[in-house]
Each structure stands twice: as C-alpha cells, then as structure tokens.
C-alpha cells in the first residue's frame, strides 16, 4: 500500500523552481495568460464582483445618455407645497384623489397611474365610494409583492387595491422594484403586470418585454421629468398652462423634498445610477416614469451574461500576452493605458450603440493581470540575472563594469563569440626558487603571493580589464570582453605599466620588512606578455561548472611572450598588433622577430621603452634594421650609446652583445 507522499524537501523545491525558470519565456507567458483568464473569469461570477460591474455601469450610463422622450409621463407630485395648500398631512382623503382623477380627465389625460397602494378601507366609507366611482379603464392603481424569507419558510405576499376600486375596470400594476445589494435601483422590473408596463398598455402603447436583469437607463437626476404639484393638478385651468395634460400619461405619487439626499434617506425615494453623480434620491413616481419610457421606447440596457463576458476576458488576456510577447519595459505602461482606454471605449460603444452592457472591469483586470504579472516575472528574472552576473563577474571585473553588465545583460553573449581581444599574461619570475626557500612556511608563501597578486589584479581592474584566471603564480586577463572597449590595447599596456610600478613599491616594502627582521631581503620580479588578436570568448566548461574565458592563437602567443620576456631582459613584451595599437600613447620599441614554441610563423616582438625620446627610438629602429641584416659587431659603439639613451633597454642591449660574443 502506498503511503502519503512526503513533503517536498528544500532541495526538491529548488529543483522545481530551477525547472520552471528553464522554461522558455513564451511558455511561461502562456501559462500566466491561462491562469489569469481562468481566475478573472471565476471571480467575475461572484456576487461582489457583480456589484463592482454595476458600479461601473453607473458611471458609464450617465455619460452621453439619451434625451428625455418628449411624450413621456408627467409627474403629479404629492409634495410639501400641496400639503400646505390642501391644509392636511398625508394620507389625504380618497375623495380628493377622485377629484384629481376628474380634473385630469377633463384636462385630456390619456392614462392616469397612482403610485399609491389603496389596500385598506379608509375611515370614512364615503371617501372610498368616491374613489371607486371615479375609477375606470384609464386608471392604474399600484400593487405590491414581496418575498418574506424566514428560517422556516419563504413566503410570497402580494398586496392589491381594494376590489371596489377596480370594479369599474381600473387595472392593477405591481410597483415593486428590485434593488441591488448596495441599495441602488438599476434593474428594470421584469413583471408582466408591472406598474409601468400596465400603464403603457392602458395608454395604448406597445411596451417591450425586457430580458431578465435588464438595466434601467436614467435620463437625469430627480425632477428631470416634468413635475407639477398635486394642488396645481386639482385646478389646472388656474395653475397650469393650457394643454399641460392633453393626451399625456400622468403618474401620481409621493415626491417629498424633506429628505432629498442619499445620506438622509427618503420616503418612497431611491438611489439610481445617477446618484453617483448627483448624490440625490429619485422619487418612486419618477422611477415608474423612467421605467415607462424604457419599456415603451426600448431604451433599457441588456446586461451581458457569462457567455459574453468570459470570452471578452479571455480576449483581453491574450491581447495583453501579445503586447508583452517580446519584452516588458516602460512602453508597457503606454500599451496598458491604451488597452484600458480601448476596453472602456468598447464597453461604452456597446452600451450606447448596442444597448448592451459588457463590464470593462473583467477584461481590464485580465489585461492588467497578464501585463503586470509578466512585467513582474521579467523584473524578477532580470534581478536574478543581475545577481548571477554580479556574482559571476565581481571577481573578474571592476565594480563599474559589473554594474554596466548587470544593467544591460544583452552586452554579454553567453556560449562563446568571436571578438578581438587584448590578452595579458603575468608571471612571477623565479617563483620555484622562492617556493623552495619558503617550503617550511606555506602560510607565508601564500601571503606573499597574495600581496603581489592583489595590486596586480587591481591594476587590471582599474583599467577595465577582465581577469580570466589565476594559475598558481600566473595571472591571465583580457580586454574588450564582455564589454566593448575600443582602446583595449592601450588599457592593457597601461595596466602592465601599473603592475611594474606596484612591483617596485612592494619590493621596497619587502626590503624594509626584511631589514627590520634581520633577514635577507626577497626581491620579486615579474614577466608580462601582451598580445592582440581574434579569440573565442564566452562561458567555457561543463554544464555544471564553467568559467568566462578566452581561447585562440592570440591567447597562446600572449602566454609565449610572457615566457620570452625573460630572454630579452625586459619585464614586458608586446605582440605586433598590440604594439601598433598602443604606439600612439607609448614609446614602442621593436626587439626581435622570433618563432615561439607551438607556432611556425615569425612574430615580431616589442616592448615599452620608458622615457625614450623620438630621436632615441629612431636610432633604435636603425639598430634593429642593422641587426636583422647582420651589420652589428660586438665592438660597435652603438651599444653603449643606446644604453645611455634608452636605459630601460640596457639589459636587452647587453644580451645582444653577449650573443654576438658567444657567436
């Protein structure tokens, strides 16, 4: 029987992370796109997200909304001025409503709707009788239906006017509305016998049947609809212009101004999509008028379901993936802003031209999720690369060059590339003898080598060189990789001169220390070979361990020049190409034409003649030509003259004289 899987160890987890990092960028981007698309699609189905979508609808729907239809309802407001004129607080005697009906009919009203529920008998039967007598087929009385939920059951309650009020043909319209979770009225009631739908039929219109969850298109804040006070409608001939109610639909309802704001609340007043801008509530009678115009003129907004929203989210996620397919940068911000603007514009266009609301939030979040997520991954990958580059090259390059390389890794081409390099080899002369003398003090030998290699390495790094490796007492460095260096030869020669200067300083320190300790001084000597040529440079080694190094014939020649420098009695030998490139900055003197071990071609060798004048260099060139043609004799006075003019080459001239003597 197989037991439970053991938890991942730290090593296993690290292996998983390395495996993921090894995936191509496009594979990781595709995975990110799929994850974001699925996540946002699932989130878009939740209730909280639905509320956020509706809030987005609020802001979009009040921009460029349609004008109020000219033949829309007129509101007869049961308001404070009417209460003052009538001299009575609400509720008023129903006989007064009967008078209003007669006055409106006389004024030519086509249909009259009372957004007031007369569900119980009045205290005075005469008032009920008066209203019943005034009712007729042109009247719509409000009803209500609610669902009461208890832990035990769900109870449906429907409240209608007294039968006496509908006996003469008055219709009943359910005035109930559905509020969103935030208490805002946005949905068009889908009731077949809704108040506004019933009133439209009574008025002879052909109201559309809105799909479930259709959204209400508002026309403005409170009192957008033409509104007259109740007391004015009782006597329109004296208070209103002629023809105010002629062939119009009239809705009678409460429209009190004592609590007009969303913060204060109100009686039969609701927050609508317009409330986000106006902060005011809209009376129930005006809400019914808005519903009336929505269903009569087909202005309601269909709300897109998951079948349309989820493809929009997926499309936005793939658009983001395309935008960041190659890379992310500051331009990604511009792409993101443009994409969000297009998503918002598309949502608004569908709202206005297609009367369809597809929320921009889901697609916008999907686009941002992919774009920002990939930018984060790219940033993390860049940071990781910078850390690796810094760690790999901090031992070989100067801090300034490491920082440049870390900021722009594209300057480093891994795996090997052909470049023109200037290569430097530096070796401690007589190290075997020194090591033998200090065989009983290995720690002291290590300290001595480090004291020498440290300033030599600093000289390389200060001139922008790359330290390839240390081979015992030998140092190898090169210039013009991994970063471009147009003056690589000059920098290499300058580094070699700094090395020789540091050697003089160190020898003085060692002499002083030896004198203080009462022992013989140790004088260190070095040989340097520099050559310029085509090389292959890059990460060399195995898949598990490698070094950033250079290979090629130019490297081999530089190493041979370092070894040959001892034979010529000079600490520095230059290859032909290095000498040509450095001649503009340093006094260069040719020494010989040799064939080094491992090469069949003749190679001219040069050195830096410190302190030489141009006249002295010209005399030296003449000496070299004579030497090549065998025109120099052992007793030639030119040796002594050149030793005085070019003291840096004194040992070289003595070597040539000794060879002539031996011959």
Task: Please describe what this structure looks like.
- By secondary structure, the chain is α/β, with parallel strands linked by helices.
- 47% of the residues lie in helices and 17% in strands.
- The strands form five sheets. Strands 1, 2, 3, 4, 5, 6 and 7 form a seven-stranded mixed sheet that branches. Strands 12, 13, 14, 15, 16 and 17 form a six-stranded mixed sheet that branches. It has a two-stranded antiparallel sheet with strand order 8-9.
- A hairpin with a 4-residue loop joins strand 3 and strand 4 (154-159).
- Helix 2 (25-43) packs antiparallel against helix 13.
- The longest helix is centred in the middle third of the chain and has 33 residues, at 361-393.
Task: Kindly list the characteristics that best describe this protein.
663 residues; alpha/beta; seven-stranded mixed beta sheet; six-stranded mixed beta sheet; 24 helices; 47% helix; 17% strand
Using the CA coordinates, give the radius of gyration. 48 Å
What share of the residues lie within helices? Answer: 40-55%
Biggest sheet statistics: 7 strands, mixed
Q: What's the end-to-end separation, in Å?
A: 92 Å
Q: In total, how many beta strands?
A: 19
Mean pLDDT: 87
Query: How would the global form be characterised?
Result: rod-shaped
| Low-pLDDT residue intervals, each spanning 5 or more residues | 259-266
Number of helices: 24
Strand content: 15-25%
Structure classification = alpha/beta
Summarize the structure.
With 663 residues, the chain is of the alpha/beta class.
């Amino acid at each position: 029987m197989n037991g439970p899987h053991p938890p991942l160890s730290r090593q296993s987890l690290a292996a998983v992370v390395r495996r993921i990092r090894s995936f191509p960028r496009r594979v990781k981007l595709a995975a990110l796109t799929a994850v974001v698309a699925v996540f946002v699609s699932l989130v878009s189905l939740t209730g909280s997200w639905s509320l956020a979508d509706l809030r987005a609808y609020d802001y979009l729907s009040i921009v460029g909304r349609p004008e109020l239809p000219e033949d829309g309802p007129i509101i007869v407001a049961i308001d404070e001025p009417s209460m003052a004129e009538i001299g009575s607080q609400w509720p008023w005697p129903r006989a007064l409503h009967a008078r209003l009906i007669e006055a409106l009919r006389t004024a030519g009203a086509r249909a009259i709707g009372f957004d007031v529920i007369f569900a119980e008998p009045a205290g005075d039967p005469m008032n009920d009788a008066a209203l019943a007598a005034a009712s007729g087929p042109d009247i719509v009385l409000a009803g209500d239906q609610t669902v009461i939920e208890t832990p035990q059951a769900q109870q449906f309650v429907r409240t209608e006017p007294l039968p006496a009020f509908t006996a003469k043909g008055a219709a009943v319209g359910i005035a109930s509305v559905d509020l969103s979770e935030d208490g805002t009225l946005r949905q068009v009631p889908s009731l077949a016998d809704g108040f506004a739908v019933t009133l439209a039929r009574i008025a002879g219109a052909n109201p559309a049947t809105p799909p479930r969850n259709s959204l209400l298109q508002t026309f403005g804040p409170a009192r957008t609809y033409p509104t007259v006070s109740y007391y004015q409608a009782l006597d329109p001939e004296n208070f209103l212009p002629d023809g105010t109610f002629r062939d119009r639909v009239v809705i009678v309802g409460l429209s009190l101004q004592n609590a007009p704001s969303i913060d204060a609340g109100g009686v039969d007043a609701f927050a609508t999509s317009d409330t986000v801008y106006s902060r005011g509530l809209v009376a129930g009678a005006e809400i019914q008028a808005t519903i009336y115009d929505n269903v009569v003129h087909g202005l309601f907004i269909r709300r897109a379901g998951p079948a349309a929203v989820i493809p929009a989210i997926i499309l936005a996620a793939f658009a983001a993936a395309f935008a960041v397919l190659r890379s992310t940068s500051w331009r990604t911000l511009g792409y993101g802003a443009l994409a969000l603007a297009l998503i918002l514009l598309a949502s608004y266009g569908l709202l206005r031209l297609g009367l369809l609301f597809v929320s921009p939030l889901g697609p916008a979040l999907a686009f941002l999720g992919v774009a920002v997520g990939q930018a984060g991954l790219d940033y993390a990958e860049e940071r990781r690369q910078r850390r690796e580059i810094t760690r790999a090259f901090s031992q070989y390059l100067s801090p300034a060059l490491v920082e440049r390389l870390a900021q722009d890794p594209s300057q480093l081409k891994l795996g090997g590339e052909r470049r023109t390099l200037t290569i430097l080899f530096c070796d401690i002369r007589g190290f075997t003898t020194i090591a033998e003398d200090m065989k009983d003090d290995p720690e002291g030998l290590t300290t001595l080598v480090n004291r020498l290699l440290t300033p030599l390495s600093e000289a390389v790094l200060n001139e922008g060189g790359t330290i390839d490796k240390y081979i015992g007492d030998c140092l190898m460095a090169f210039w013009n990789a991994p970063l471009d260096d147009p003056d690589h030869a000059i920098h290499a020669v300058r580094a070699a001169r700094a090395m020789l200067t540091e050697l003089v300083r160190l020898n003085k320190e060692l002499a002083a220390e030896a004198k203080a300790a009462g022992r013989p001084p140790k004088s260190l000597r070095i040989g340097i070979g520099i050559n310029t040529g085509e090389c292959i440079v890059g990460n060399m080694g195995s898949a598990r361990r490698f070094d950033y190094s250079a290979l090629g014939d130019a490297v081999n020649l530089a190493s041979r020049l370092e070894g040959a420098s001892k034979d010529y009695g000079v600490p520095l030998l230059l290859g032909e190409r290095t000498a040509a490139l450095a001649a503009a900055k340093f006094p260069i003197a040719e020494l010989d034409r040799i064939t080094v071990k491992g090469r069949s071609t003749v190679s001219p060798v040069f050195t830096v003649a410190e302190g030489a004048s141009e006249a002295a260099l010209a005399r030296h060139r003449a000496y070299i030509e004579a030497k090549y043609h065998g025109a120099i004799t052992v007793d030639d006075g030119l040796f002594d003259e050149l030793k005085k003019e070019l003291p840096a080459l004194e040992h070289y001239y003595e070597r040539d004289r000794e060879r002539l003597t031996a011959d």
